[in-house]
Design a protein that fits this description.
single chain, mainly alpha, transmembrane helix, ABC2_TM, transmembrane, ABC-2 type transport system permease protein, membrane
């Protein structure tokens, strides 16, 4: 346990120095929050009720799909993987520490958004904070699992960037955080339901943490966890 905590502490420090994760987990989401928060609440005052959830969906999706995968690819698609094997370190160790490090960084950014939104934009806080925080943890976990799949499955930087954008952009545009999904054609609404952002947004709304909104994120988590286990097992072999 002490070894894991040391590895996690080291990974947290490395991630802070990583331009990719620093930009995607902190700088860009917070700049977007500060700029667009005022615009959204001025143009559409009713968005004050969902501004926190909307900004968090963007933050988590960006960190999970654009920030985390390059770090994983740098480890598992290069000679760093051989260093793990040569020193007898399990391959899953790096994945787990990067996962938890990204989780902590994203949770911190989301907490900043949660605390600043009422002060800066008169946004409405969640009526029940503990269920909201649990829903946030579920959403971050599922999104990061998909980001881990990208980081392990893709070995080319250009292809990784393209696939990350293919996950990130629909997650934002089709999740309902910009405009109601009922304004979309039926086929686009159906596509939006495939992304965790659609369900994460609804989980974080007041009284949104119920089985009807949970089954698909849990299904995604189970499928992603199984894939990651098989993928790491093959790398070890």
């Amino acid at each position: 346990m002490s070894g894991f905590l040391y590895s996690l502490r080291l990974q947290l420090k490395l991630d802070i120095r990583s331009r990719s994760l620093l930009v995607t987990c902190y700088i860009v989401p917070l700049i977007f929050f500060l700029l667009m928060g005022r615009i959204f609440t001025s143009v559409m005052p009713e968005m004050k009720g969902t501004l926190i959830q909307s900004m968090i969906v963007l933050t988590v999706s960006m960190g999970a799909f654009i920030g985390l995968p390059p770090s994983l690819m740098e480890t598992y698609a290069t000679d760093v993987k051989k260093v793990y094997k040569a020193n007898g370190v399990p391959l899953y160790s790096g994945l787990i520490t990067m996962f938890f490090s990204a989780f902590i960084h994203l949770y911190i950014t989301c907490a900043i958004i949660l605390l600043l939104s009422p002060v800066l934009f008169d946004a409405v806080l969640p009526a029940h904070v503990p269920p909201f925080l649990l829903a946030l943890a579920i959403f971050i976990t599922v999104s990061l699992c998909l980001g881990c799949i990208l980081g392990l499955a893709v070995k080319n930087q250009a292809k990784l960037t393209m696939l990350a954008q293919l996950l990130f952009l629909p997650s934002i545009m089709l999740s309902g955080i910009m405009f109601p999904v009922n304004l979309l054609p039926d086929f686009l609404e159906a596509i939006g339901r495939l992304f965790p952002a659609f369900w994460g947004y609804r989980l974080m709304l007041d009284q949104g943490l119920y089985p009807g909104n949970l089954w698909y994120p849990l299904l995604l988590f189970g499928g992603a966890a199984l894939y990651l286990y098989i993928r790491l097992h093959k790398m070890n072999g």
